[in-house]
Structure formats: C-alpha cells, structure tokens
C-alpha cells in the first residue's frame, strides 16, 4: 500500500525501480532509490579496488557488491530480480602455482 508521502509499506507492491548491471532493484521510497543510484558505482568500485590491493587479483564483483549495497540502503524488505535478456559472459584464466615444487 502506498502512503500519503509516496512510500510503500510492502516492497512487493512497489513500483519504485532502479536498474543496475544485470539486476532490477525495488525500493520502498524514492529517497532510498536516489541514495542507491548516487552511490552504488562508487561503492562497488571502491570495494573492488580494496580487494585488488589486498589480494593482488582483479575480479569483477560488481553485481555482488551492488546487491550488498542495496541491502545497506533498503531496510524495509528485499526484492531484486535478474534481468533475463542481459547475460554477462566472463572468461577467466586460472593459473595454479604450487609453492612446494
């Protein structure tokens, strides 16, 4: 149900949507949506840089970190849907080193 101020009490009824990466994110308020949109790219890039600096590998965690940030912003429920027509293809090359050889 939508309140007088435009927020939703039930996230399953919400039509406040943001699309980022391969996912569609639902929000109960426009404030949470704008906060997410303004900061999600910065947050995901910052966390990827931290991981790269700490472990010395570059890895794409954008979708995972965006969902993690969504959970920090959206407090009244959780609703994320994967977009069906967007597929991400990653080609990873793994090299295994045995330090005892």
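-> sequence recovered:
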């Amino acid at each position: 149900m939508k309140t007088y101020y435009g927020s939703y009490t039930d996230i399953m009824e919400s039509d406040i949507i943001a699309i980022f990466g391969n996912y569609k994110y639902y929000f109960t308020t426009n404030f949470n949506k704008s906060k997410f949109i303004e900061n999600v790219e910065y947050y995901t890039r910052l966390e990827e840089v931290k991981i790269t600096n700490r472990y010395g590998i570059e890895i794409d965690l954008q979708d995972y970190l965006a969902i993690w940030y969504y959970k920090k912003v959206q407090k009244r429920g959780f609703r994320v849907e994967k977009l069906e027509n967007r597929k991400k293809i990653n080609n990873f090359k793994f090299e295994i080193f045995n330090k005892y050889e």
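The longest strand covers residues 16-20.
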